[in-house]
Amino acid sequence: MSDDLRELYQEVILDHSRDPRNFRELPDCVHTAHGENPLCGDRLDIYLTLDGDGKITDAAFKGRGCAISMASASMMTEIIRGLDMEKAKALFERFHDLVMGSGEADISLDEDDLDKLQVLAGVRQFPMRVKCATLAWHTMNAALEGDAVASTE
Amino acid sequence: MAALEKHSPARNGFDTDELARIRADFPGLDQAVHGKPLVYLDNAASAQKPRAVIERLSTFYGHDYANVHRGVHTLSQRATEAYEGARESVRRFLNAPTGEEIIFTKNATEAINLVASCFREGVLEAGDEIVSSLLEHHSNIVPWQLAAERTGARVLPVPIDDNGEFLLDRYRELLGPKTRLVAVTHVSNAIGTVTPIAEIIRLAHEQGVPVLVDGSQAAPHMAIDVQALDADFYVFTGHKVFGPSGIGVLFGKREWLDRLPPYQGGGDMIERVSFAGTTFAKPPHKFEAGTPPIAQAVGLGAAIDYVNGIGMARVAAHEAMLLAYATERLSAINSLEIVGRASRKAAILSFNLMGVHAHDVGTIVDHSGVAIRVGHHCAQPLMDHFDVASTARASFAFYNSREDVDALADSLKSVQEIFGR
Ligand SMILES: Cc1ncc(COP(=O)(O)O)c(C=O)c1O
């Protein structure tokens, strides 16, 4: 098997996709959005609860999609819980750079959160799959912005 | 015995030497992907091009190119002859009665939209019904929905069973006094079902209802005879029959082409223009406004001539062998489920590996050089019927081999290795 493939399908990713964390609805939550990748039919819903200071107190998701989109959603919900919403949005941008292979050529990541997301950097080698990795993040962003729907197109 | 074994597939398919000769005609097949020989099994999405087509385009552009139907000069005459020659090749390919009934479009989608738009303007009224099916590609659903929305007509889908079989009995029930058109596919692009199209047409005609057949996935695989079928409209798309992209075909019976209003207005489709009123050219030009896809049509003609040189009957026999072998090999894989088990199928095989999303399958087999399509195949109503979001689809052409099937089956093993299933 090629190194690219091995890097894409790391054990951590397979584990999250098989056993996604926070895979549930949050009843009565106001910050929710539906995300779809029209190209491949991946779809998911993101649920967020925020406290009065704009801190994300809980994050969950439901949906179906490929291993990459499910793992990315699962990891995201773990990481953004407890973050200030502005920080979560900033993290989305950094994550976007990471999987697009843009930004600094070799992004050295000191922050813990971004560090954990490093396992998804393998999608860089798979341009057709970048949208799978970013779908949950786009949707999270839409939920925070108050948009009901996010699309990767 | 060894010799016999080696040759036994040839009873139904091409023998080894002949297949090698055919493959050598397709330069696109001869390359490595991720360091592995390319195994191209995405023919239902688009087919590779034979050298005959590539070279025809090159000589046409290099020597015979000008606009068509407009000049008295030599190049325009040559270009017109080449363009009209392609129409004649298509006419023979479909066994249409006359070349006037062959209209060039940019693809199958435009051919369907052309008929939908003309029906919207000239035929459909509120309360009318268009019968379609669950097997359709979106391009044979959405144009009818748009036409229905504008006119107050309705689109009724014929259901299918769990094998993906078109349900003739349910179809019969849907045909009624309000049916204005039946628009169904000849072959399903997603699961390969060959519909009982002759019977579908016969039943519609009993009620005086015309039928549009989407032949996009039939044309690459089998001989087509629109007269024997008695189809009112038959469409296909050039790039799937080894021709260039940017060219599609609509066959329409002359009586319909005379009766329907024009599609687009412009040059080439008129007889005489004045601001007091314009009279339209006769078919096919009535439906070919503006400069057509000239070289694309010529390339399609070359593709059809090439395929005819092999013979559609032999193409069908070789592909039947490939489909049977692929079905056997893939059925032997644990946790693989074939989606679509109709009694008559073209060489299109849709499947899912339990617990693995088709996209992951597609990415992983690509690394073994195997090109397949994954997703909903522009057939979401069909995916919903089978309660899947997507499938992986291997689709074959006459240049594929048993070794290609073996490569696919082997590459699926690496999917299982990664996902540990
Ligand atoms: C059954 C069927 N109909 C219509 C189409 C549309 O063809 P095109 O995109 O060339 O218009 C396709 C191919 O995608 C198809 O498989």
Automatic annotation (TrEMBL), chain A:
The source's domain of life comes to Bacteria
Q: Which InterPro entries match?
A: NIF_FeS_clus_asmbl_NifU_N (IPR002871)
Q: Which GO terms describe its biological process?
A: iron-sulfur cluster assembly
A UniProt-annotated Pfam family? NifU_N
GO MF term list: iron ion binding; iron-sulfur cluster binding
Q: Which residue intervals define the domain NIF system FeS cluster assembly NifU N-terminal in the entry?
A: 9-132
Name the PANTHER family for this protein.
IRON-SULFUR CLUSTER ASSEMBLY ENZYME NIFU HOMOLOG
Assigned protein family: Belongs to the NifU family.
This chain's protein is named: NifU-like protein
From which source organism is this entry? Oceanibacterium hippocampi
Starting at the broadest rank, the lineage of the source organism is: Bacteria, Pseudomonadati, Pseudomonadota, Alphaproteobacteria, Sneathiellales
**Gene transcribed to yield this protein:** nifU
UniProtKB/TrEMBL annotation, chain B:
Q: Which keywords are on file for this protein?
A: Pyridoxal phosphate, Transferase
Going by the entry's taxonomy, the superkingdom of the source organism is recorded as Bacteria
* Enzyme Commission no: 2.8.1.7
Which enzyme type, at the first EC level? transferase
Which co-factors does it depend on? Answer: pyridoxal 5'-phosphate
From the UniProt record, list the reaction(s) this protein catalyses: (sulfur carrier)-H + L-cysteine = (sulfur carrier)-SH + L-alanine
One family from Pfam that matches here is Aminotran_5
Q: Which NCBIfam families match?
A: sufS
Q: Which family does it belong to?
A: Belongs to the class-V pyridoxal-phosphate-dependent aminotransferase family. Csd subfamily.
- This chain's protein is named cysteine desulfurase
Q: Which gene encodes it?
A: csd
